[in-house]
Structures are given as structure tokens and as C-alpha cells.
Automatic annotation (TrEMBL):
Record's keyword terms, sorted: Transferase
Domain Glycosyl transferase family: 179-326
Domain (Glycosyltransferase subfamily 4-like N-terminal) ranges: 18-161
Domain of life of the organism encoding this protein: Bacteria
The organism of origin for this protein: Novosphingobium sediminicola
Transmembrane segments: none
Protein name (Swiss-Prot/TrEMBL): Glycosyltransferase involved in cell wall biosynthesis
InterPro entries, sorted: Glyco_trans_1, Glyco_trans_4-like_N
Length: 370
């Protein structure tokens, strides 16, 4: 049995333009450069990210394919199990919370491979659902060789649930432009940028209510980047609120850099986040961030006032005042903000993951008597 991760198997549902899939594909290129074999096992070759896959990666699709549905994740693990047995990887990597339901079936099929999962978002919901989810997680972690937590807060959360588990804080890499475009102030109104998938987690209604509240104070425009099944409903909501040109929906864009150059602030309206990469990209461009208190990761990196503001309230009026204060403050330079995110450079983060893979593979080999 190998004592390092020579063959890395990444399992995910499809090539949806989600952050966890995009990050995994980016790190895979570095692992290939380091001489490792990388295979992707997916339910279906759908979504917009497949054109970014390095040609050195073997992509294996289920036959027949298993596209996303309300119950597809429950069927995905058992469907993948025979493929895992045939591929014989050294480590199986599940790149986010979304893929937790795969754990039981893959654990039975993995043979001598290590099985690891990235924690990409808070694992416990609020309210009554927290207790059964805690029990379920304790059940799942018995089959795992390790958790990779995206920030120190998520690591603490996992340790509180299962103190015996192997968990490490491993930051997601962020692929940043070397020379960001200079800021282009609009002058006659504040330009606020929002980017993400149109789904409940992102709380788009709060973003719309906040820009409405901000416009009651000063002229401002909210530019929204991204797609998702809620987009038509949110466009209808914006129209019904009479926002007019105070909000524009741009859909998926090939690069965020031109929009960051125009922005006075980035707004994060989410109910929860693991590590919003768009906030890191904003800081790298010298764009301050205003966010709801949704992410341990943002608390880790927004450690100086010039980085922006984490607003403890989810009231639109208070968020609007936060945006006003940050957007009207003297513009920070990228040189001031980049040190906050220097540890998120792409190659060091991917290398840290690879070293961790090697560690868990070695430990599993030792536990099985090699």
C-alpha cells in the first residue's frame, strides 16, 4: 500500500460553477505538477466548469449518468462505489459539505484508500435541526480519516462535535490577478458589487432591501454577478420594489476584475459562508468588504478597519449605513490589504493540502499494518 497520495480521486456530483468544485480543479493542477495522478469521478458531465479541467486529469462519469435532483445525492454514493473499487486511489477527496451523503457508501468501497472531506460551510444548522444533524455527523466521522476545515472557526466547530476526529485548518487558495486594474470611481453614485449563486444561502432579498435602504440615503447601484434558480424571482422582486437602474443583473461573467475596478465596496449578504473567495479577490484589488456576520473566515482576514466592516445585524437599514461608511471612506490601496490574504496564495495552499493527503494516507497505511 502506498504511504503517500500518489493517486488522488476527487468525487463530486457534476461540473456546476460552485466554489468548491472550482477550487478543487485549481488545486488539482498543482498536484499534477507535483507528479501525482488525479482522477475525477462525477455523477454527470454537466455544468460550466468542465472546460477548465486540466487535460492531464482523467474524468470518469457514471454510466448511466446521474444528474442533480432532490434525491440524487442519496443515490450518488452507492452508484459511485463500484467505480471507486476499480480505480483504487490512495486518497478520496470530497470537496465540500454538499457531498457528505456520499460518505457511507464510499467508506465501504474504498478498500485501503484514505477518505477525507473538506468542510466548506458551517456544519450545524440553527434551531431544532441542530441536534439530529449533530448525531448524524458523529455517525459520519467514524468512517473518515480527516476533515479539512476552511478556517479556524470551522475547525473549532468540528472539534466541539467530535473531539477525537483528525481535523486541520487548510485554507482554500485564491487565484488572484498580479496587477489589478486601478479603481474607476463613478462619482455620481456609489457602486456596490455582489457576486454569488442565486440560492437561499446568499439571501438575495436582503441585498435588494439593503440597496433600497442605501438609495434612501444616497444614490447607489448594486451590480449582481452570478446565476442560479432564484434569479428570475429576484429580478421580479427588484422590479416590484421599483429599484429600476439601482440594480443590474449581469449573470455569469468570465472575469470579475473589471467589476471590482468599478466597485466602491463588495457586499456579502449570505446567511452563512465557509470562505467566500470573492471577498479575497476584492481585498486583493483594494476593494473593501461589507458583510453580514456569516463567516468565520472573514473574521480571520478582515483584521484592520480599512478591510471593511462585518455588520452584526441583518437589518437592511444598518447594512446600508455600513456600506455608506465603508464606501465613502478613503480608498485603501491593494498594497495595504494584500498582506491580509498573503497566506491564501494558490501554490502554498495546494501544497498544504497535498502534504495533508500524504499524512492521512501514511496514517491509514500504518493503522492497517501496511
Amino acid at each position: 500500500m502506498a504511504e503517500r497520495a500518489n493517486h488522488i480521486l476527487i468525487c463530486f456530483h457534476d461540473f456546476n460553477r460552485g466554489g468548491t468544485e472550482r477550487i478543487a480543479l485549481g488545486m488539482a493542477r498543482r498536484w499534477l505538477d507535483q507528479g501525482r495522478q488525479v482522477t475525477i469521478l462525477c455523477g454527470a458531465r454537466t455544468g460550466g466548469l468542465e472546460d477548465t479541467v486540466d487535460p492531464r486529469i482523467e474524468v470518469v462519469e457514471l454510466d448511466p449518468p446521474l444528474p442533480r435532483s432532490l434525491t440524487s445525492r442519496l443515490r450518488l454514493g452507492p452508484a459511485m462505489a463500484p467505480y471507486v473499487e476499480r480505480l483504487r486511489p490512495d486518497v478520496i477527496f470530497l470537496p465540500g459539505n454538499f457531498h457528505f451523503p456520499l460518505i457511507p457508501a464510499l467508506a465501504k468501497a474504498r478498500g485501503r484508500a484514505a477518505l477525507v472531506v473538506k468542510i466548506s460551510n458551517p456544519v450545524l444548522p440553527e434551531g431544532a435541526a441542530a441536534r439530529p444533524m449533530r448525531w448524524l455527523l458523529r455517525h459520519f466521522v467514524r468512517d473518515l480519516d480527516g476533515f479539512a476545515a476552511m478556517n479556524t472557526g470551522l475547525e473549532a466547530e468540528i472539534r466541539a462535535i467530535a473531539p477525537w476526529v483528525n481535523v486541520s485548518t487548510l485554507y482554500d487558495p485564491v487565484f488572484l490577478a498580479e496587477n489589478p486594474a486601478p479603481h474607476r470611481p463613478a462619482g455620481d453614485r456609489l457602486e456596490i458589487l455582489w457576486a454569488g449563486r442565486f440560492e437561499p444561502q446568499k439571501d438575495v432579498p436582503l441585498a435588494l432591501n439593503t440597496i433600497a435602504a442605501l438609495n434612501r440615503i444616497t444614490p447607489a447601484r448594486l451590480t449582481m454577478l452570478g446565476e442560479g434558480y432564484l434569479r428570475p424571482r429576484m429580478e421580479k422582486m427588484a422590479s416590484g420594489m421599483g429599484l429600476g437602474d439601482a440594480v443590474r443583473f449581469m449573470g455569469h461573467v468570465p472575469a470579475i476584475d473589471p467589476f471590482l475596478a468599478d466597485a466602491d465596496a463588495l457586499f456579502v449578504s449570505s446567511t452563512f459562508e465557509g470562505g467566500p473567495a470573492v471577498a479575497v479577490e476584492a481585498l486583493a484589488h483594494g476593494v473593501p468588504v461589507v458583510s453580514t456576520d456569516c463567516s468565520h473566515f472573514l473574521r480571520d482576514i478582515m483584521t484592520i478597519p480599512e478591510a471593511g466592516m462585518i455588520v452584526p445585524s441583518r437589518k437592511a437599514e444598518l447594512l446600508a449605513h455600513g456600506l455608506l461608511a465603508v464606501a465613502q471612506a478613503p480608498r485603501p490601496t491593494p498594497a495595504l490589504l494584500r498582506p491580509l490574504i498573503a497566506h491564501l496564495a494558490a501554490d502554498p495552499c495546494a501544497d498544504a493540502y497535498l502534504a495533508w493527503f500524504d499524512h492521512v494516507v501514511h496514517d491509514r497505511a500504518a493503522s492497517m499494518g501496511n
